[in-house]
Write a structure and sequence with these properties.
By secondary structure, the protein is mainly alpha-helical. It has one domain. It is built from 4 helices and no strands. It starts with 5 loop residues before the first helix and ends in an 8-residue tail after the last helix.
Length: 84
């Protein structure tokens, strides 16, 4: 999860505050579904989302450097830098 979101962590400055906003919207969306979705399914979905919190902590200096290096290598090889 963390690697997939590294671009927004590094280039867009995504923070745990952004993650918390997402969690709140996700919870509100689940709540709005009412009885269409079983409560157990909602609880499982919420539990999974909450388990991703560490993936959205600020990128370390080493992660930022690795991301930038991988992006440069991918770009020089003509590959999509977003996927590498």
């Amino acid at each position: 999860m963390r690697q997939v979101h590294m671009k927004v962590l590094v280039e867009k400055g995504m923070t745990l505050a952004d993650w918390e906003v997402f969690v709140q919207h996700f919870k509100e969306t689940l709540d709005s579904l009412g009885p269409d979705i079983p409560e157990e399914s909602k609880a499982n979905a919420m539990q999974y989302i909450l388990s991703t919190k560490a993936d959205f902590s600020p990128a370390t200096d080493a992660e930022i450097e690795a991301y930038k290096n991988a992006k440069a290598v991918a770009a020089s090889a003509g590959r999509c830098p977003v996927m590498h």
